[in-house]
Write a structure and sequence with these properties.
The complex is a heterodimer of chains A (270) and B (78).
Chain A lengths: L2 E3 L9 H10 L1 E6 L11 H20 L4 E6 L9 H10 L9 E8 L5 H16 L3 E5 L6 H14 L8 E6 L4 H6 L3 E5 L8 H11 L4 E4 L10 H12 L4 H16 L12
Helix pairs in contact in A: 2-3, 3-4, 7-8
Chain B lengths: L3 H28 L3 H7 L1 H14 L5 H8 L9
Helix pairs in contact in B: 1-2, 3-4
């Protein structure tokens, strides 16, 4: 079976992970821009990071037969510094035409602060002005429900934003309805302890159906890994769902969301 | 030795995760065909409820009490 990991931070992962993904049938990944494990001191650091995402990581992934795409933004965690964030946002427009860039993301909120909201609104505006797909980061743990509500309110109030071109990521049991009822795509991040386990991921797929849902590992600097994506698929299959149904979730849905950008070349199977 | 606050800091997310997983496990059983009946009658789930009761009461020795709840208490074979 073929997989796509629609949200993984390859810059923080080892070559062992690429080997694992290749062995398991992961043929493509998308990597949102995010935190580097530390707060960067200048916009120049982001310029280099964007070059890493657009030019370096695709070459690294290709060695394992994996097609690598990315998203650009300043992440919510570093958006507290509005001055720096605005300098970074200015770097983005000239890079949006890059053949590996799928859109603006992962933008969103971290601690739901006023500054984060300001930077989020400015990046939503950027995406709208350049007609870009949007990948949304929702906050973690206790901040998730409130943050998801704030984010979706902002998006709904901007008439330029078409919900089907937005994926609300890191949804869980208490926030997935907020995304789905407003017509957005929903992302499930299989990241045990702080997000969703493979078992709960399969539960959510069974309860909410497989339309407009993508599942990802969001592997990053924390205790995470690409096996969480494949383990979720195995759990889903173990419950009696067919490989065709699993392919819809773990391959075709990312193709459908990303395929709204013509730069994404992989077509759904079947 | 870590103090209580440090210990909680270290383990809270896992404790939260275990609680959430257990809730999801029970939801999964309830949604499955025959779920309501199993939840009401299966003796293992009765043990589980008893064990959860131990968690909500104060006092030391919770782990030992929970182990005892899930232990075979029948007499040894003769």
């Amino acid at each position: 079976m073929k997989y796509i990991d629609p949200h993984i931070h390859c810059v923080s992962r080892t070559t062992d992970d690429y080997q694992y993904m290749a062995r398991c049938g992961v043929v493509a990944v998308s990597e949102p821009a995010f935190w580097a494990g530390f707060d960067r001191s200048s916009a120049a650091s982001f310029q280099d990071y964007f070059r890493h995402l657009t030019d370096i990581e695709p070459v690294r992934a290709a060695r394992y037969g994996i097609d690598h795409y990315c998203w650009l933004c300043i992440n919510a965690k570093e958006a507290e510094n509005v001055t720096l964030a605005r300098e970074v946002i200015k770097l983005i427009p000239p890079m949006l035409d890059h053949r590996r860039v799928l859109g603006v993301g992962e933008i969103g909120l971290n601690k739901n602060t006023r500054n984060e909201i300001t930077v989020f609104e400015e990046q939503v505006d950027l995406a709208a002005r350049y007609d870009q797909l949007i990948l949304i980061h929702t906050p973690h743990l206790a901040d998730k429900h409130k943050g998801t509500s704030i984010i979706t309110s902002i998006l709904k109030n901007d008439r330029r934003i078409r919900p089907e071109r937005v994926l609300i990521d890191h949804c869980e049991e208490h926030t997935i309805r907020i995304a789905r009822h407003n017509g957005f795509w929903a992302g499930l991040t299989i990241y045990p302890v702080t997000k969703v386990t493979p078992q709960r991921g399969a539960d959510i797929l069974e309860q909410f159906g497989t339309t407009m849902i993508c599942v990802n590992s969001a592997s990053d600097w924390g205790e995470s890994g690409p096996c969480n994506l494949t383990d979720t698929c195995l759990e889903y299959l173990h419950r009696g769902h067919t490989e065709t149904e699993a392919t819809e979730v773990f391959f075709n849905n990312p193709c459908r969301f990303f395929g709204q950008n013509p730069k994404w070349k992989i077509r759904p199977i079947g | 030795m870590q103090d209580a606050k440090e210990t909680l800091e270290r383990f809270f997310l896992e404790m939260r995760w275990r609680c959430l997983s257990l809730a999801a496990d029970l939801d999964r059983i309830e949604r499955a065909p025959g779920g309501a009946s199993i939840l009401a009658t299966d003796p293992r789930l009765a043990q589980l409820r008893e064990a959860i009761g131990v968690l909500t009461r104060g006092g030391p020795g919770r782990a030992e009490q929970v182990q005892t709840i899930f232990s075979d208490k029948t007499p040894p074979p003769r």
